TrEMBL record:
Span of domain Putative restriction endonuclease: 6-57
Protein name as catalogued: Putative restriction endonuclease domain-containing protein
Gene3D superfamilies: tt1808, chain A
Secretion signal, residue range per the UniProt entry: none
Length: 58
């Protein structure tokens, strides 16, 4: 699954989430940036076209 996200990031995808329901966390992938881990009430990054919305892991 991670390989699929990395492939997409190389081909113009702006953002990828990998949701781990057992660990209750989300791994966030962005082009040319380090992997970020979000948990609990942290607000997830979203695409610019969706600004105005807020999503958290919970």
């Amino acid at each position: 699954m991670i390989n699929n996200i990395l492939f997409c990031l190389k081909h113009q995808t702006q953002l990828g989430w990998l949701i781990d329901p057992q660990e209750r966390l989300i791994l966030v992938f962005k082009p040319k940036q380090e992997l970020e881990v979000f948990e609990g009430e942290q607000i997830l990054p979203i695409l610019d076209s969706l600004k105005g919305y807020q999503l958290s892991v919970n």
